[in-house]
Amino acid sequence: MESMHQCIIPGLPDDLALRCLAMVSHGYHGLLETVSKTWRDLLRSSDYANYKAREEWCGNWLFVLTEGSNNEWVAYDPEADRWHPLPKIPTVHGDWKHTGFSSISVCNQFFVIGGSYAQNDPPVPHKKPLITNEVMQFDPFKKQWTSVASMITPRTHFACSVVSDKIYVAGGRNLSCTRGLALAEVYDPVANKYVPIFGTSNMSEN
Length: 206
What we know:
Layout: H1 14-22, H2 29-32, H3 37-43, H4 46-55, E1 62-65, E2 73-77, E3 82-85, E4 97-99, E5 102-106, E6 109-113, E7 116-118, E8 130-131, E9 135-139, E10 144-148, E11 159-163, E12 166-170, E13 184-188, E14 193-197
Antiparallel strand pairs: 1-2, 2-3, 4-7, 5-6, 6-9, 7-8, 9-10, 11-12, 12-13, 13-14
């Protein structure tokens, strides 16, 4: 029987064709997927995502949380000059309004950290919001959200910065300390772990 293998790009070895397509900006993926079923399957495959990740070809994206759209994040790809929606963040809090969080990029990953959730129409008036320590990571290569290690302390409206590929969070407040937290911690994306700093080892359990 003749081989049924279909070349990714006729006239090119598949490894070179993969490299060519992997260099194309994410913003063009919707267009590329219309070329053929072979291209669509390739662009949606783990091989393609892993190749881009290995070469660190994720591009420079601008992430924006759109107002009034049920916590929908969108990303702007300057290379393609296009906006495209991200998958909805998987959360147990449904369509509750998410505020007071921090978002930051490090190691070619995008993180949404902490904050508070409040129901849009709470059944109990003046119900206190839920302040969380959860952290969600968006992988631009796999185009999916993943829950990673939670902060030690739930907090909202806090400072956040990256130093030497590690995420530092400090201050903010929560329901047990509404006047301000004198606590800070640092997250290592490689170890997927938060470590307390500035006396956080003496904090009380929540």
